[in-house]
Write a structure and sequence with these properties.
The complex is a heterodimer of chains A (about 280) and B (about 375).
Chain A (H helix, E strand, L loop, with lengths): L6 H9 L1 H23 L6 H8 L1 H33 L3 H15 L3 H12 L4 H8 L13 H25 L3 H9 L4 H29 L3 H6 L7 H11 L3 H25 L2 H5 L1
Helix pairs in contact in A: 2-13, 3-13, 4-5, 4-8, 4-10, 5-8, 6-8, 8-10, 9-10, 10-13, 12-13
Chain B lengths: L5 E10 L2 E11 L4 E5 L6 H9 L6 E6 L2 E2 L10 E4 L11 H11 L4 H14 L15 H13 L5 E5 L7 H18 L2 E6 L2 H7 L2 E6 L2 E6 L1 H6 L4 H6 L6 E7 L4 E3 L2 E7 L7 E4 L5 E3 L6 E10 L3 E8 L2 E8 L8 E5 L5 E4 L33
Parallel strand pairs in B: 3-8, 3-9, 6-7, 7-8
Antiparallel strand pairs in B: 1-2, 1-4, 4-5, 9-10, 11-12, 11-14, 12-13, 14-20, 15-19, 16-17, 16-19, 17-18
Classes of the chains: A mainly alpha (about 280), B alpha+beta (about 375).
The complex binds adenosine-5'-triphosphate and magnesium ion.
Keywords (chain B): ATP-binding, Cell membrane, Membrane, Nucleotide-binding, Translocase, Transport
Protein name (chain B): ABC transporter ATP-binding protein
Pfam families (chain B): ABC_tran (PF00005), TOBE_2 (PF08402)
Chain lengths: ~280, ~375
């Protein structure tokens, strides 16, 4: 050893990289974005005024919130069912559920999105199967619209909802459920008044996580929406790289960040984060 | 009243390889306070849960009152249950916890409120009704669990180690409260415990279990005074009964390693002699009785437990008061009716009577130095 620092300092030295990294990767770029939003194209709050008044931006924002809510609800429902299955099935079934959750994790979003494009387009797998089964006459419109975007986004988000939900379900004491049965409650009632309320923190946490993730979605709406489903992230991209409206893009970024911070604060406030990942 | 009779017939519970409960039968008469006693893992909770309907019996029948309830869901059995570890609903207030059962059975709101007020007063929880279980002490949680089950006013209450998480002081208070409640409401109670003090002090009747089978079924008195097996003998009483293996001596069976004092007829050889620590008198002055050596003594306040060796064996002797006898030779004496004989397979032998020990505590006119017979 070259120098012998006191042990206390050795630990502190190890603590340094994280704040430095955060500073370099988040704080500095964010300061840059904020600066752009009030200086480009000229000094002032014009960009924010446009955010408040431009109906086309409002449309994008509402569409984003609406899509994120739908995706959040759908992903939550699916993840809830899967977590419930996992909880009450044999260990072999549990492995299968895990496989279904983990496998897509290893495939890049881009590949998955094109996969969905192949599956959902007019002469794609889904439509041709449905036609062969005689369920439909002409192909359903599953791409280049909101439906396709929702399907692919839900698929992407289910694992993110699955784990917090599973974790909150696993914290429920079986004996408490048995006690409710013993007190004369039917299975349905046990589920509704004992099981479900105890997963509420998990549900809320999972929803906010999915929602926040969805706000920033770019590739899926861009590819599967085919321009018809313009969401906030794609809008920012267009403003910055196609029309060189750096200021308005930056202002929208700042707005989104404020929204996300608000949601994360809610998350911290109402469900204990450490219990969702534990 | 006969609807609170509980009858089990050869009830069995198997899980793949393990048989948790192995063909047990008993019949509880209305108003009885029955204890299911036994070491951890002997199948007490499983038995109780089968009676409650939370676990399906693999075999046998369960009758409550006149009905065969073996396949009925828990809600239709007309009984309530207090769980090991309480199992309170963490997201509900104390009041909601208590009335949960009434809500499930759609009892009118007004009646719910009245019964809640009454029961909360009974278990002294009136001031805590708005709290969540996490904000209560162990004893309070226990009372919530109790209230949650008695509010149903079912004539039968099953309790699974309801006091296991409490400290000794609270435990003895709660024991009395539960007992008082039971006689006031004239409930039939089956109460699971592995604590023999609880069993002896609360039960009208004790059913002792081991490995899923009933070892003995009788009053606390019978269990204490006439244990049916060496296991029953060692399970009840504290410190446990001394069990001494017997071998053949000149004039009868003797304790292994102590060939000079016959303690039982020759037929008892191979079995064990059981004497409770409190039934042994220890004297350092007597010249008759079984010779022994005091190894150590434990002073417990009201009495002292002396650890002595007889032959190759450790024997515990309980004496009232304080004694410091470690290292001294002594003699042990017990009355014949306090000695129990067990066969090699552990079962009680009533066909033999232990040999009486010669008793002449004052044969040597020597002043007592430290100890004297304590009886
Ligand atoms: N769901 C289960 N699956 C398999 N075996 C079980 C199950 N539940 C209990 N057992 C086994 O059955 C036996 C009896 O269990 P039980 O819970 O009735 O014991 P107990 O007498 O209540 O013990 P304790 O005093 O520790 O509560 C134990 O050996 C236990 O391992
Ligand atoms: Mg148990």
């Amino acid at each position: 050893m070259i120098t012998r620092l006191p042990e206390r300092w050795q630990y502190r030295l190890l603590l340094w990289p994280l704040p430095v990294l955060l500073l370099l990767c988040y704080v500095v770029p964010f300061a840059g974005i904020v600066t752009w939003s009030v200086t480009l194209p000229e000094l002032g709050v014009d960009n924010y005024a446009r955010l408040a008044n431009d109906p086309s931006i409002h449309a994008v924002l509402w569409r984003t919130l609406y899509l994120c809510t739908i995706v959040g609800v759908c992903a939550l429902l699916l993840a809830f069912l899967m977590a419930y299955c996992w909880l009450y099935s044999s260990s072999r079934w549990q492995r299968w559920v895990e496989l279904c959750i983990f496998l897509p994790f290893f495939i890049s979003v881009l590949v998955r999105t094109f996969g969905w494009l192949v599956a959902l387009r007019n002469n794609g797998l889904v439509n041709s199967w449905l036609q062969e089964l005689g369920l439909i006459d002409s192909p359903l419109a599953l791409t280049r619209n909101t439906l396709g975007v929702i399907i692919a986004m839900v698929h992407f988000m289910v694992p993110f909802a699955f784990f917090p939900l599973l974790s909150s379900m696993r914290q429920i004491d079986d004996r408490v459920l048995l006690a409710a049965r013993g007190l004369g409650a039917s299975r349905l009632r046990v589920f509704i008044s004992i099981f479900l309320p105890q997963t509420l923190p998990g549900l809320l946490g999972a929803f906010i996580m999915v929602f926040v993730f969805c706000l920033g979605f770019f590739i899926i709406p861009a590819i599967l929406g085919g321009g018809s489903t313009l969401m906030a992230a794609e809008y920012v991209f267009l403003q910055m790289f196609q029309t060189y409206n750096w200021g308005i893009g930056a202002a929208l970024c700042v707005l989104m960040l404020v929204l996300v911070s608000g949601l994360v604060w809610l998350l911290m406030r109402f469900s204990r984060v450490e219990r969702l990942v534990g | 009243m006969s609807q609170s009779r509980i009858r089990l017939e050869r009830v069995t519970k198997r899980w793949d390889a393990t048989t948790a409960v192995d063909g047990i039968s008993f019949d509880v008469t209305p108003g009885q306070f029955v204890i299911l006693l036994g070491p951890s893992g002997c199948g007490k909770s499983t038995t109780l849960r089968m009676i409650a309907g939370l676990e399906e019996a693999s075999d046998g029948q369960i009758h409550i009152g006149e009905r065969d309830v073996t396949r009925l869901p828990p809600g239709d059995r007309g009984l309530s249950m207090v769980f090991q570890s309480y199992a309170l609903f963490p997201h509900l207030s104390v009041a909601d916890n208590i009335v949960f059962g009434l809500r499930s059975r759609k009892v009118p709101k007004d009646e719910q409120r009245q019964r809640l007020a009454k029961v909360a007063g009974l278990v002294d929880l009136t001031d805590y009704l708005h709290r969540k279980p996490a904000q209560l002490s162990g004893g309070q949680r226990q009372r919530v669990a109790l209230a949650r089950s008695i509010i149903s006013e079912h004539p039968i209450c099953l309790m699974d180690e309801p006091l296991s998480n409490l400290d000794a002081r609270l435990r003895s208070d709660m024991r009395r409260e539960i007992k008082a409640l039971q006689s006031r409401l004239n409930m039939t109670v089956i109460y699971v415990t592995h604590d023999q003090v609880e069993a002896m002090s609360m039960g009208d009747r004790v059913i002792l279990m081991q490995h899923g089978k009933i070892v003995q079924d009788g009053t606390p008195d019978e269990l204490y005074n006439r244990p049916a097996s060496a296991f029953a003998a060692s399970f009840i009483g504290s410190p446990a009964m001394n069990l001494l293996p017997l071998e053949a001596g000149k004039e009868g069976a003797v304790i292994v390693g102590e060939p000079h004092t016959p303690v039982a007829p020759l037929e008892a050889v191979g079995g064990q002699l059981g004497i409770r620590p409190e039934d042994i008198a220890l004297s350092t002055t007597s010249t008759t009785g079984v010779p022994a050596m005091v190894v150590s003594d434990e002073y417990l306040g009201a009495d002292t437990i002396a650890h002595v060796t007889v032959g190759n064996h450790n024997v515990r002797v309980r004496m009232s008061g304080k004694h410091a006898l470690a290292g001294q030779p002594c003699r042990l004496y017990w009355a014949r009716e306090n000695a129990h004989l067990f066969a090699a397979d552990g079962l009680r032998r009533d066909d033999l009577t232990p040999t009486p020990l010669p008793r002449s505590p004052h044969s040597i006119p020597r002043p007592p130095v430290v100890g004297s017979f304590q009886h």
